[in-house]
Amino acid sequence: MKQKMIKIGFSYFSFNDYLLDHQLALWFSAIQKWNASHVIFTGNFDIAITEDVFRKAQEFGLEPIVHFNTIVPSARKFNDAAFILDLYKKWGVTQVIFGDQPNTKRGWLLSGRQDETLVDQFLDRFIPLANHALKIGLTPIMAPLMPGGEFWDCAFLELALDGLKQRKMPQLFDGLVLSSNGFTFNKPLSWGEGGPERWPGSKPYFTPDGQQNSLGFHNFEWVQAISQRVIGKKLPVIILDAGNPGPNIDFEHEKSFEDNLRKILQACHNIDYSEKNRGNEFPILDESVLACNFSLDTMKKIFGEPFSIEILDPIFSQTQSKICRPKTLAGREKHIAHYLLLPSYASGVSDSVLNKVRPLIKKFKPTVGFSLEEALNAVKVSVFPDSNVFADEQINRLRNAGCEVEILPQSGIEIATLLQD
Questions:
Q1: How sure is the predictor about 310, in pLDDT bands with cuts at 50, 70 and 90?
Q2: Which domain of life does the UniProt lineage start with (predicted)?
């Protein structure tokens, strides 16, 4: 029987140094190896993330998602924001998260606190962009809330969903996804499991003895319970920043943080296993959780410097032997995303061949070379065919090394046509 799994993904670094081409290739290769399905990039509506970043993620088989983690722009800036969404859709982005923690002071749009006005103002900005996202084929994801927060998260979400209901937005409910911050607040991963139905005594800013609240990894269940109560439908949810101890990170609990990451991964990779461990300080996930995401920024902050793939590899590779994943050549780290392998002759490089592949080089910007040994270090290898130079044995060597091999047509016109598909 096939094992039930939750997709995992990574929120990519927010530091510009990690957007350099060689860093993208290095980290995307690792993220792919860890069996992630997607990578989340943080951005804003003022400056667009470059197309090359998304293309590089796609070369590694990673779906690009954008999290707009600033205040959602007002209606007068709608056209500019919609233009960026149109670009992202064209460049392969499939999902967008609008906003970040609008129930905290840094996410408030007013100097004074008026609960209904705060929520209405958030909706006034969220609805037009969410509708536009749906219209062009993007999945809109509502902003993650700070569990608790200056404006209690459950109350904020209830007012927001009720506001959508009052404004008669059934089409939005059909495509909307919720999000939840997977903070632990240094509590067991099972804290809050079962949601408000199991813990009816929990109130905003007050949790009686013997009760639990939404301030834990299972915040997603409280979020979904609100949607069930308000609109009669349990909306799907994604978990962000899974395992983060919370806003006031305790650096003395690095080991417990690592243990939590391992348990969350185990729950994602085998839902049935997590169900069997119910009540054992273990997270319980089901298929309404579309994805569980881990923040590279958070892990870099907690594990400290020097931070590297080698630190995370023992954690995120823990269950990979049981999961189908791309093969890698033993002892060889794949640090090239895409390699264009061209034939080389005694007379030199053929101008004719270069002219035929020029459109491919312009569009994908692969590493271009003539060495089979160098190509073995790439995740994907596009080969310009010449049986006198690249025999079947050599092509099979690439495949056996775990490379995704693409044999190009010999005709320049066919290559150009292929690029248009």
A1: very high
A2: Bacteria
